[in-house]
Amino acid sequence: MVNKRFSAFSRKSLLVRSAPILLAGCVLLYYIYLKITIVHQQIFIIDHQSKYSNGSINGNEETIATGTFGDHNLLAKNGNVSSSNEKGLCPLVSPHLRGEFKPTHVIPESISNVEDELKMVEALPALGGSWQPNNCTARHHIAIIVPCHDRDEHLRALLRHLHPFLQRQQNSYGIFVVDQKEDGRPFNKAMIMNAGFAEVNKTGQFSCFIFHDVDLLPEDDRNLYSCADQPRHIGIAVDKLGYHLPYKLLIGGVVAFTKSQFERINGFSNLYWGWGGEDDDAARRIMAANMKITRWPKYARYTMLLHKRQHINSQRWGLLGATQYRYKSDGLNSLKYKRVAFKQNQLFTSMIFKLP
């Protein structure tokens, strides 16, 4: 009996002595799990988001050409900052990301209201809608080109949402709003985007060009705005479409190209007057140029603002059938336009083009 009691006591004593060791082992395993998760996330970003076919990344320093647009440097710095060669690159994963959040459908009353809101949260950009981080050198230098025609209320909502979104990602960016001079014809969104690219590209300051619909608001800032080694469709899942991609060749909404990628497909077609077809045409150009559409779907979710259907292009199906034969002669190399207005507002740079 005494031996049995002693044996039971010994087992309990052993468990008590082993408990701290077991607890320490659990803590160590959890720490290893966290380190592996962080390393995996960084490897994913290195593989999928730090590849440019335009510009180069050498060691710890990214080389991007500099330039001016009008009389202003578009990549204006906010606050007092040191020169870029005195700062290290921004981290692969920005520490300021918030993750998922649902944008509001409330439309700001005016641009000045948006400026006031951004000033309150310390997200007001430099003149012309440009910004870059002041404590590190941005890894991505992006131009956001927004075609906007009679959609001022949506533009206000997008600007209020997009500036803090991009700044949390520590991007160096400029926002350019492009429009067509009113002449009684339907809106030619594709030609206007071509003209916007042609003008912004003259600065030599951007390695990535993102064409962004004015009515789409990103829902997760882990959806990083950057280019890849293939044209990248960013606006994948939209709430009005049940967060489902209707068909594989869809690249509408938000799409990113490097300079060389966009020139390789000869830009967008100039022939689509009215709503519909220009994005499907661009997808066919990518295929015809022996490139692929890249998607990173995990965080690419968007809220679409309500809007009326625009004038539909009844010729779009006929045009789409001949894209692969026509794209080398219809696009950037056949583009004609005249810039009739240019203004650097606080939140964006505005350009209006007269089309032939």
C-alpha-based Rg, rounded:
25 Å
Report the uncertain regions.
30-84
Q: Which sequence of SSEs, written as H and E, runs from N to C?
A: HEEHEEHEHEEEEEHHEHHEE
Beta percentage is 15-25%
> How many strands, what sense, and barrel or not for the largest sheet?
8 strands, mixed
Structural class, from helix and strand content? Answer: alpha/beta
Summed over residues and divided by their number, the pLDDT gives a mean of 82
What's the helix count?
8
Number of strands: 13
**Between the first and last Cα atoms, what is the distance in angstroms?**
105 Å
The percent range for helix content is 25-40%
Shape: globular
Structure, explained:
With 356 residues, the protein is an alpha/beta fold. The protein has helices spanning 2-49, 111-120, 152-168, 189-201, 259-264, 278-288, 316-320, 323-326, and strands spanning 56-58, 61-63, 130-131, 141-147, 172-180, 208-212, 216-218, 232-233, 237-238, 254-257, 301-304, 338-344, 349-354. It has eight helices and 13 strands. A hairpin with a 2-residue loop joins strand 1 (56-58) and strand 2 (61-63). Helix 2 packs parallel to helix 3 (152-168). It starts with a helix and ends with a strand.
